[in-house]
Write a sequence for this structure.
């Protein structure tokens, strides 16, 4: 993973980051890196995520999925228990179809279950606590659908969960293959583990290459942002946020990285969005969103930096010659050439308007490249959390709503549920 | 469409909108409505979009698609030429599969074309000018793929374009069914026209109900935000943006409206994001993003209002009874009940943190409801544009990049292409 922060400098963006600021920041990066390294060595909560390329056990994952024969995998989870697997599945070229049940929309759940050949479908249910309401509700519904179709769900269900709890008990009762969630790793940092890798292993993806890509980023971590692509990204994003760029539009120029942008959005929002600080991640896609979001990024409120991601090498497709008026320049070009020209044009267009962007380049969109990108962004996020001085690995603000929802559903007495009843209304109909 | 702005009031949100401000704003809404109505009556550029429920000709659209027999539709367009059709297709229950080719990623285009039975596929190519580089490049590639598969593309291609230009000439040369783009309607406002309705017509969708839903919103337009749901939404979003809420997270609680959020993101970004004003649209999905974005919306920078959309009525799905520990409260509930509890809990959770939200409710997610939503949001956007005093229907900031890309591809001499060469670099690798 290569990072180019040239277009975040104050010679380009207004406001931007001066070279002097980067030098000053580098001292804080050195301190932060020392804390990160100590946390990593001690396998402290959260920091343990950065050890996953070493601690993940691909053989155990392979052994867990080996007995399962399927054409389709249904991942049942939500948030960090689903986005990693979805990203891996949408980025790599797997030989199974992977669907994610990460919402509790009855119309969608029903339609999806109806569309699958359940006798050729496996379920991977993922919940650290084993009590996540959305995940367990969907699992109960999916299991019942298999029962109704005469399919033995116990032969086709794989579990990833904590060492105790509902799902662990269920796995033991029915002798299901069960993997442990990694210790000390919050869901959004768990892609390189038993949470997301089973999807790749089941579909013949190159798990070793994914971990090798992550390891190559791990090896690049150092006490200087000028030596560490991940830290250059994290520190520059932090400095831009401090200067008012409170939105980070993640815009990969590769369709297969669209889900990666969603994964990044969770990582960035839930880790950094606390105590009034952080940066709101906007999910975008190049070149498509040039015809949707670019007008705003370039000329709207001065609050959005843009992260432009692309591979250096793509499978290519020539554009046929044409006699269409004014389009002959396209003939002989290729779709990839067009996409790359648009990437560079968008980057220059933002720069010409004084809007900051950061370029992220991978060699290829493949297992190795994805491993670099996932690990690199996790390290960038952890560094940014250190610089913001916030508890990166907590997510306290989501608890309130969970209690309210549980109260509304009759799952106990919760004060928060009463606030729902007392809503202020001003209806226009 | 019913709008509840209670949680945007200053008794809930900090900063919020006072009732006195709403009263003052209502005077400006009356003036803006007078301009909108005059523009609509005169079919002026942009405002003409609000006449589409009357001027659209469903019979002509039906006649154009009638000769085409297909199982799959490939919409080739980008931005406003694709998002309307994608939204209609993903929201309604159509009897064809609809794919969109709205990017120039060679890997994706190749994979998609390879996955289709081209002999059962129709193409709808949409470009007002007939020269949009991405669209024409994809069309040339798709046409060649049909040729290579021995499929006569001229029997399976429908065109929507302007009255002159490449695509018009092509349609005439090959006797293709060709529909006119509506006059005076920018792409992002063209969903209720020949641009997006052919997808619905081909797939047996209820085009009349879609237009009827839009008409019911059109009939509600009046000189007061207190009488007009669309204006209540537009005026309140404007007032919140002026108070620092420069992000609008569009969060439908219905999977089938996920693409609607993308359509909205283009409408809102490209129409309002200019001259330093506007509001950045963030695409979200309930309940999924409660486990991804909610932490940030509730506790991150005070810059994001949230729009919560839901239907009052959903097809439902009971959650099976369970003896899983601590989850018995779910048994006997339903997925829809769980989703609605989460909707209300999230809304209350934002309010408890002083973060503004607006509730949008539809009777149902169906053709009528979608018509209300599309038209309502267009009217809201046009009103907000009047209040911001910006040229809602232009998108000047995207031209720079188009010229740069064209120059890079050898399509002429453009100064902007030189800026690409002169990029400021600061590489970390």
């Amino acid at each position: 993973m290569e990072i180019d922060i040239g277009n975040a400098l104050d010679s380009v963006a207004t406001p931007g980051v001066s070279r002097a600021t980067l030098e000053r920041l580098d001292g804080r990066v050195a301190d932060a890196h020392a804390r990160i390294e100590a946390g990593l060595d001690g396998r402290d909560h959260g920091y343990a995520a950065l050890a996953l390329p070493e601690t993940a056990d691909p053989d155990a994952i392979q052994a867990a999925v080996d007995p399962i024969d399927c054409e389709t995998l249904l991942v049942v989870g939500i948030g960090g228990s689903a986005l990693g697997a979805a990203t891996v599945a949408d980025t790599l070229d797997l030989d199974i179809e992977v669907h994610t049940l990460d919402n509790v929309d009855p119309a969608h759940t029903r339609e999806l279950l109806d569309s699958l050949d359940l006798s050729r479908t496996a379920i991977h249910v993922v919940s650290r606590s084993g009590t996540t309401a959305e995940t367990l509700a969907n699992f109960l519904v999916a299991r019942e659908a298999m029962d109704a179709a005469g399919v033995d769900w116990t032969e086709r269900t794989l579990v990833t969960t904590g060492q105790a709890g509902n799902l662990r008990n269920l796995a033991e009762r029915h002798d299901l293959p069960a993997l442990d969630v990694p210790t000390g790793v919050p869901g959004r940092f768990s892609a390189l583990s038993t949470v997301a890798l089973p999807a790749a292993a089941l579909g013949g993806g190159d798990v070793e290459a994914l971990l090798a890509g992550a390891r190559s980023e791990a090896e690049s971590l150092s006490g200087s942002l000028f030596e560490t692509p991940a830290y250059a990204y994290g520190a520059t994003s932090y400095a831009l946020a401090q200067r008012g760029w409170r939105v980070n539009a993640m815009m990969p120029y590769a369709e297969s990285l669209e889900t990666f942008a969603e994964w990044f959005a969770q990582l960035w929002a839930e880790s950094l969005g606390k105590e009034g600080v952080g940066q709101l991640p906007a999910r975008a896609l190049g070149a498509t969103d040039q015809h949707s979001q670019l007008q705003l990024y370039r000329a709207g409120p001065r609050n959005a930096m843009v992260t432009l991601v692309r591979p250096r090498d793509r499978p290519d497709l020539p554009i046929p010659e044409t006699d269409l008026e004014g389009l002959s320049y396209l003939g002989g070009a290729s779709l990839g050439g067009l996409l790359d020209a648009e990437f560079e044009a968008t980057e220059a267009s933002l720069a010409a308007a004084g809007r900051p962007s950061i370029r992220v380049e991978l060699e290829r969109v493949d297992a190795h490249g994805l491993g670099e990108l996932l690990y690199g962004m996790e390290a960038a996020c952890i560094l940014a959390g250190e610089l913001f001085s916030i508890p990166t690995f907590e997510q306290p603000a989501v608890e309130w709503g969970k209690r309210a929802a549980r109260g509304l559903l009759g799952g106990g007495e919760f004060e928060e549920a009463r606030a729902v009843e007392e809503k202020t209304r001003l209806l226009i109909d």
